[in-house]
Automatic annotation (TrEMBL):
HAMAP family on file: CinA_B
Family from the record: Belongs to the CinA family.
Xref: CDD domains: cinA (cd00885)
Origin species: Spirosoma profusum
SUPFAM superfamilies, alphabetized: CinA-like, Molybdenum cofactor biosynthesis proteins
Protein name according to UniProt: CinA-like protein
PANTHER family: NICOTINAMIDE-NUCLEOTIDE AMIDOHYDROLASE PNCC, NMN AMIDOHYDROLASE-LIKE PROTEIN YFAY
Length: 418
């Protein structure tokens, strides 16, 4: 098999370390590198200090074939990437006339005066191959040094992505002979990571050496990522499909989709296929369920609306919950959530109604109903089913988990033959 090419991604900027911006660049770069057969082995964030950047570059040289650097290419004094690269490579700075013409044109087109600081954007380390940035003044740069490839890119995401897509990735693809890396992701829900691992342990142990499994937990679910490496694309696709077929009988009830599928998208697809409409009654989730459903383009075809019934008055007046039910069992109860699901279905005239009611926290719990006690329900023309969730102490997590579980309850009911 072709030797694996390893990559490290380095992001430069105090603003990343201080948490003032979110680093989305490394996630995108990692995906794109994998698509051309280059395996990311590490990502590193470093501040705007020359010594720290030099140390990171030296370390990356020891473990990676490709070093991708983003950030620190602006015109201000705190942007020190170019000067630091000159020190690292032991070269001086030279003005690139092609880059200067593009920077000049950038300012002329906008009717703005250019300063010496702006002209300095065209100054590059002497050993740099200039990679034109069509969407900004910060240059892209390609270096080859002691058997390694270094790429320096702007930190602005849309500039970086354009440079990577149109210049860097094609050049990397022709520079290296790389193996093929294929991913297949199995999306599971309502089964914890440890329980999932125990259930598929024998299958996992039998995976061939060139196929690796990773567990990627999220709220209410786990993504199982199979990564296959080899030289034959068709064969890798066949092998991944075979492994999915082998593991599916072990976890089929908990599998809702594959790759980029999201639970709300799968639910919407099922509703559309069955020509059904949906109404939502929410108490503890405060509209989050409806928000997730309407994230899906075209959801207006099946989602008719929702009622956020935080108040018992709304539960009674808008959803038809019986006052006697609330008095006897309380708002957080199986009896109430069933009537909420049935009531929103009736009130909106939909085929299906789902509902949530619980104590999201951090306050409001009692010995009988502590924080994290939540009921969910799904009502159809044939039946109403309800489930009790016993979650934790954290409000945001409880809201997100409840949303996942009620959407999964809806999914299961739509797939049911009953």
């Amino acid at each position: 098999m072709t030797n694996m090419i390893r990559a490290e991604v380095i992001t430069i900027g105090d603003e990343i370390l201080f948490g003032q911006i979110t680093d989305t660049n490394t996630q995108w770069i990692g995906t794109e590198l994998t698509n051309i057969g280059i395996r990311p082995v590490r990502k590193t964030s470093v501040g705007d200090q020359a010594d720290a950047i030099l140390n990171v570059l030296q370390e990356a040289h020891q473990r990676a074939d490709v070093i991708i650097i983003t950030g620190g290419l602006g015109p201000t004094k705190d942007d020190i990437t170019k000067k630091t690269l000159c020190t690292y490579f032991g070269v001086g700075m030279v003005r690139n006339e092609v880059a200067l013409a593009l920077v000049t044109g950038f300012f002329e087109k906008r009717g703005r005066a250019m300063t010496d600081i702006n002209r300095a954007q065209a100054d590059l380390p002497a050993n740099a191959v200039y990679m034109q940035n069509d969407w900004g003044t910060a240059p892209g740069m390609w270096f080859e040094h002691e058997g390694r490839v270094y790429v320096s890119l702007p930190g602005v995401p849309f500039e970086m992505k354009h440079l990577m897509t149109n210049r860097i990735l094609p050049k990397l693809g022709s520079h290296f002979q790389t193996p093929i890396i294929k991913h297949k992701i199995i999306r599971t829900v309502a089964l914890g990571e440890s329980f999932l691992a125990e259930r598929i342990e024998a299958w996992e142990d039998a995976l061939p050496n060139h196929i690796r499994l990773a567990y990627l937990p999220s709220f209410g679910g786990v993504r199982l990522r199979l990564t296959a490496t080899g030289d034959d694309n068709a064969q890798l696709n066949r092998e991944l499909a075979e492994q999915v077929e082998k593991v599916l009988p072990l976890i089929e009830k908990n599998v809702f989709g594959y790759d980029d599928d999201e639970l709300e998208t799968v639910v919407g697809r099922l509703l559309s296929e069955k020509n059904l409409t949906l109404g939502v009654a929410e108490s503890c989730t405060g509209g989050y369920v409806s928000s997730q459903i309407t994230k899906v383009p075209g959801s207006s075809a099946y989602f008719w609306g929702g009622v956020v019934s935080y108040s018992n008055v709304v539960k009674v007046n808008q959803l038809g919950v019986q006052a006697a039910t609330l008095e006897q069992f309380g708002a957080v109860s199986e009896e109430t959530v069933r009537q909420m699901a049935e009531g929103v279905r009736q009130a909106l005239g939909t085929n299906v109604g789902i509902a949530t009611s619980g104590i999201a926290g951090p306050d409001g719990g009692t010995p009988d109903k502590p924080v994290g006690t939540i009921w969910i329900a799904c009502a159809t023309a044939n039946r109403t089913i309800a489930r009790l969730l016993k979650l934790g102490q954290y409000r945001d997590q409880n809201i997100q988990l409840t949303t996942t579980y009620v959407l999964n309850l809806l999914r299961e009911e739509l797939l049911s033959d009953k």
